[in-house]
Amino acid sequence: MIKNGMNYVMVSILLLVNISTVSAESLPYDYIGAGFNSVFLNKNEEIHLGFALLASKKLSSDLYIRGQYGQVTKEIVDTNVSLHELKIMVGYIYSLTNSTDVDIELGYVSDQLSFRSVNADDEGYLVAVKMRSQLSHSVMISGGFANIELSDNHYIEVAAELSYAMTDKVDFVVNLSHSDLKPYSGLFAIQYKF
User: Fold this and answer.
1) Looking at the domain that runs over 2-48+77-193, which CATH code has it been given?
2) For the chain, what is the largest distance between any 2 Cα atoms, rounded to a whole number of angstroms?
């Protein structure tokens, strides 16, 4: 499944390079956002809903910092089970064109599972590569993958994102991802660009 996801990302990257013709000063890296997280652990299981907080700040012409916190809660046999995930990344921006960037990220990851009085923590690092392209003044797409190394787990996450500018400062964002740990997950958020 991961191999098919990577093939999809590679085809998407080739398409981005070929069809990206919009002239822009630079892609947005300064934003805050909030939204809904959704996770399916398998095809037959119901959706688990939660919330997400996002932030990013460009530090220089080719460096930025980005953070994401998400929580998903599910009630199982009269007990709440919660999954908390925190990612903090530093990224390097390599501009291919005025409207297409390749971002390379190195970051910290923390996963916490809470069940009754039991807390299971796992932390580690990630290395990610993604391509972002502004297709029009209101539509931006991105795709990429991350290698995530935790103390108890190792997995590859493949993701694709669509951003639609509702105004000059506000975007609606849909991010879909797949990994062995979280086979089906989505993020639906509103981002405010500053």
Assistant:
1) 2.40.128.130
2) 54
